[in-house]
Structures are given as C-alpha cells and as structure tokens.
Specification:
Layout: H1 13-22, E1 27-29, H2 36-41, H3 48-52, H4 57-65, H5 79-89, H6 97-108, H7 121-132, H8 139-145, E2 148-152, H9 162-171, E3 176-177, H10 183-186, H11 193-204, H12 211-227, H13 247-250
Parallel strand pairs: 1-2, 2-3
C-alpha cells in the first residue's frame, strides 16, 4: 500500500471492494470555503498557492503552528514566497489531513507522485502554473471534470448570493448551494457588531432597534437563503454557553 495509491487507507479486501463500488459516484461536498464569485467569473487560478491555500484557514493555522511568519501566510508577500514557505514546513505535517488534501489535489492535476518539500516546491510551482493555465482547469471545468453533484459554500446572512445564481446558470443546473453562517451576529462583544447590524438593517430595509427586530431580520435572511437553495446552516460555537435569560434580560 503506497501513499495515495488506490488502496491508501484501505487495509482489507472488504474495504477495497466497498471503495470500488462507490468511487465513481458524484461528489457531495457539504461544506467548503470556495470563493463563489471566482467560480461565477470562471477566472483561472494563476498558481498553486491561490488554488490550495489563499483562502484556506486550515492551511494558515497549520503554517502558524509551524512558526511561519504571518507575512508569508495572509500578508503581503508574493504568492511564490508563500508557496515556498508552505513547501518548507510541509514534510513536518505528515498526519495532518491537509498533507493528504494537497497531495490529492496535485494528483487530480496530473502531478501526483512528487511530495511537496523545499526541494520540490519550485518545480511543483512551475508545473502547477502550467497546468492551471489550460482551459480544462478553469473553475467551471474543474467542477464538471471532478463530477461534483453539490457543493455548499459558506456565506454571511447579509450576502446577496448573486454569484451563486450566475455560477449555477453557467453550469446549467444547481450545483452550488449557499450555507447560512451567522457568526457575526453572535459576536456581540466585537467592536464590529454594531456596524454589522447596520449592514443587516440596510440589506433587509428594516431598522434594528431591539432584539425582536434583529430576529425578524435574521428570519428574512434565512428565508432568502432557502429560496436560493440553502439546505444547511453552519455555526462556529467557539465556546459553550449555559444559563437562562428572559426575553427582557436578553434585550
């Protein structure tokens, strides 16, 4: 059993037979952080950093844990430098799912068999840039080629979701569904909370003066998402809260 061959993680014949029975089924991607506007515009990815890491906070956290400076993660460093910083620490990340994810993605692009490291980073960068420049690697064609039945993006309650409509029209069917994620509403201690309420108020043309108004706006947003095809919500509950409060106390 070699790394990422067709028997990877399949340690028995039963496991292998089960895998073979489903391997050609469409992909149901129930949660991602895809930039749907990018897909709607069908802009080709210019380089592997942009494709694999520019919007993936899991990659960022892994790099931070390995001591990579923020400038080489979310800062103003060139994409090539960020990619090489990732390559530098990547051998240390064996066992992290991201190690498998990026190598699986490289294999999808026909670049399997080479492990990302300081020694291979530059060649993989060049090879990946060449492949991504091909028409078959545009976002819409990648979705078609990978046989994606459904992919659920992560979206804010104030979003208009127009890019979802455009992308689905280009794909000829509803593939991309929004996911309702009201994290900003929950962060009442944030300095950005009141400006965010103003944004919600403007979006749904309803002034938010009390808790009932806020709930009414969220109900409008929730219904709007449902009309746009959303079938799930996503909540980042960073710590558990307990206790009871009356409506007046909450107000």
């Amino acid at each position: 059993m070699s790394f990422l061959d067709e028997r990877y993680l399949l340690s028995s014949e039963t496991a292998f037979r089960l895998y073979k029975s489903v391997e050609k089924l469409p992909i149901m991607d129930v949660h991602n952080h895809a930039d749907v506007q990018w897909i709607a515009d069908n802009r080709k990815f210019s380089d592997p950093w942009q494709l694999f890491a520019a919007s993936d906070h899991y990659v960022w956290e892994m790099m931070r844990a390995c001591g990579v400076p923020e400038r080489l993660i979310t800062g103003d460093a060139p994409a090539y430098d960020k990619w090489m910083a990732l390559a530098e620490i990547f051998p240390e990340c064996v066992g992290n799912p991201i190690y498998e994810w990026i190598h699986l993605d490289l294999r999808q692009l026909g670049l399997g068999g080479v492990l990302l490291s300081r020694e291979t980073g530059e060649n993989l960068w060049n090879d990946c840039c060449h492949v991504l420049a091909q028409d078959e690697c545009s976002p819409l064609n990648l979705i078609r080629r990978m046989n994606i039945e459904t992919m659920c993006s992560t979206d804010d309650p104030a979003d208009l979701l127009l890019e979802h409509k455009k992308a689905n029209e280009l794909l000829g069917r509803r593939v991309i569904r929004p996911t309702w994620r009201p994290d900003k509403v929950m962060k009442i201690g944030s300095p950005a909370w009141f400006p965010y309420l103003d944004k919600l108020s403007s979006r749904f043309h309803l002034e938010i003066k009390c808790l009932k108004d806020l709930i009414k706006v969220l109900e409008k947003s929730h219904a709007y998402f449902a009309e746009a095809g959303a079938i799930a919500s996503d909540h980042a509950l960073e710590y558990a809260l307990d206790g009871d409060a009356s409506e007046a106390e909450a107000e």
